Amino acid sequence: MAQAWKCAGLRWSGTGPELLWDGGRRSPLSWGKRVAFGVAEGGVRTCAGARGHPCPVRAVVPARGTGARCEECGRLDRAHSVAADGVADDPRPYRVYLAWFGPGLVKVGITAAGRGPARLLEQGAVSFSWLGTGPLMAARRTEELLRAALRVPDRVPYAEKRAVRAELPREEGERALEIRELHARAAGLEGWPESLAREPFRAVDHMGVFGLAGAPAAVGAVSELVAGGAVSGELVAAAGPDLHLATAAGVVVLDTRLLRGWELVPAGGTAGTSMPVREFGKPTASLQDELF
Fold it and tell me: What is the pTM of this model?
């Protein structure tokens, strides 16, 4: 029987995306690399645990959820999460940013200054600019100021991000227009916390980093993993947690958050997928994404 591995998610490093596996193993990904795996017959998806600890009851979790946690582990994870307002006294400096994911999709957010642009890569931000740096609560107040005064949201569903990737402007300057305008409007607002050091507009573009320039448009996305199913394709692009895989039926997006909790085995055969795929442009039930 083939050895099974449990995926711990996708991480962006200085050299690009890499899959993480329980036990510490890493699989660096590059364009043209074949990604192929399956779920054994009879397999079930179990809770991934929280804060580095396994789920005490190994609870079975829904195949379509992106969090891969049971209710109790999800509560524990949120209790220690800055994103979920579970931490208010973090002494580290934080940065406020504006992120652009495609036409009409802009959000404001915060990230620990020490993480650099990692959070923006994880979210699939095609372009972004910093707004300022300061203590956590000052960054939070600035985020709320932009939400209230400029009606800039603090989250964008991943389904919407995927839907506009085929419509991204070719010119880098065009991809920065919306956040350039919002940055200027934000600079004119009153009520900025004095402890937040403002930063000038400077767009950082991830189109090349994600491999999206010239990549074929995706035709659909894997909606869930199922026992006995398999996915196989050539990696042509990646953005946030999404891998864009070229298959015989076209490019299919695989949200790697769906992998967590499953025991995965190697898969052979031709490029394709026997997992359920939702074709883009067709209506679907709304699924809950994680924060940010």
Answer: 0.90
